[in-house]
Structures are given as C-alpha cells and as structure tokens.
Amino acid sequence: KLAAQGKYREALQLIKRENPFPAVCGRICNRRCEDACTRGTVDQAVAIDEVKRFIAQQDLDAETRFIPEKVIPKVDGEFTERIAIIGGGPNGIAAAYFCGRAGIETTIFERESCLGGVPRHVIPGFRIANEAIEKDIALMEQYGVEVKCGAPAPSVDELKKMGYTHILLAVGAWKPGKLDIAGDVAGAIQWMKGVKAGNIGVAGNIAVIGGGHVGLEVAHFLCDKNKVTVVEMQKEVGVTIYRTARYKLLSLLAESGVEVLTEHAIAGVTDGAVELKKTDTGEVVTRPADIVIM
Question: Within 13 A of 231's CA, how many CA atoms are on the CB side?
Fold first, then answer.
C-alpha cells in the first residue's frame, strides 16, 4: 500500500522493521506469501516479491537509503552483555542486525574471507549480484557490529575468556547428506561453491539427484554447456517453489534440453553412469553421468 502511494521511504522503514535482507530477499525469495495469497483464487496473487524488490532497489541508491534508528529495549541505557556470533551467513548477519540495533555489542566470526554465506559463495551471480549482498551487510554494520573474517572462530571457552557473555552458533548446513549406495556423489552446496569460485571445472553428462529448489537451480546453472538429467522420486519436481517461478524455471530447463525423470531413485554410481530404480516397478535403468550431484 505504501509503495502504491509512492511512499518508498516509509515502505523501506516497514520492511526493515522485521527483515534485515530486503535486497537479497527481493531477488531469491521463494514467494510463499504469494502462494498463500487469496487473490490467486481469483486471477493472480499480488506481486508481493516484485514490489519488495522494487522498494529494495531504491535502497541501493545512497540518496534514498534508509537506516533504521537503534531501538534499545531498556530504560537505563544500553546493554552490558557482549555477543559472539560464529558464522557470517544469513543467520549470523540477521542476528547481528537485530542485536546491534538493540544496542548490544556484537562480533561476527567468519572463517571465509568475507560475509555472505550461501548467497555469496554458492548461489550463481545471475540470480543475485554481490552488490545486493553488500548493501544488506552494510546495513548491519551501521549498528557498530564488529566483523572478523578469514580465520576459524575461537573456541567457546576462549570466547568466554575474551568477555563474551552470549555465544550464537550460526554455522549453517554445509555438510551434505549421505546415500547408502556404491559410488561417488557430490553434495550440491559444496560443489556449487567450488564451481562459483572457479576451483571446479564442469563438462559432460551431469545427473542431479533431487528435484527440489536446490536441484533445479543447479540444473539451471549447468544446463548451458552440459547434458543434465534431474532425478526425482516423487511424481513432480519443484513442488516447494512458488507456482509462477516454478513454471518459469521448468520452462527454461525444458528449452535447454534438461531431462527430468520423476518416480526414479538413485541406486548406484558406476564409472561414467548412474543407476536409477523406477519407484513403481523396481526396474533399474542407466543414464550416462560423468558427475552425480545431490
């Protein structure tokens, strides 16, 4: 409503009351609020994400940037506690934003050379640019949050000796799951991190195990110069993605020649191939695969 009235600064103020990532969320949000929008039963859901992205775009401009004031929930001044946050991904940055805004001395410890977590190190640049990530990080830093990157965090005991009274572990979910099958399967998150950093080359036939949001995004990223097959146990792929975004993504994959196999489960990995079992008949089929990603 505020955006429709041209009150962009007021709209930013409302968004930043609860959301420390307006620029990031405006680009990679899965739009579940639109999926639940009752307007969708009439024609189309209200384009909530597009509106928020437009508002967040105003925030990238220094002249219209809005920095919320500190809100200290105490009558006798700022807090005396000190908080150490281990992990500089979205969880750690969000926690630091709200702690800093409340006037609590906060430090983030991040082992990578810069903050950002999965949005910076894993998600392809065509989905989200570093500029958007940097702007949201800069918003957090406005509240005096100290950032220490490039080294493992001290132990809990060491942090306590350094004077930190509260410690938050925000290390993310980087470790891939494991399959009880023969052969090598790469975890999608770590593998995509290596590709984005330029440490892993990509070529040939690729099997992506899992037709959820991550699996389809990996397939989209790789389909330009590779033969990609998406394998999903269920009857459909992308069921957790907002319907409009899902339709667009599946259309892009189809145009790029990506093969989607539903009701198939991975049974094993051999040299240059992946073995798949049909969930309805149990029949085992083989597809060429130089790399298998889960």
Answer: 23
CA distance 119 to 227: 25
208 or 26, which is more confident: 208
Q: What is the CA radius of gyration of the chain?
A: 22
User: Are 287 and 207 spatial neighbours (Cβ–Cβ below 8 Å)?
Assistant: yes
Rounded to two decimals, what is the model's pTM? Answer: 0.84
Quick: pLDDT tens for 146-171: 999 999 999 999 999 999 999 999 99
Beta-sheet pairing, 284-288 with 273-278: antiparallel
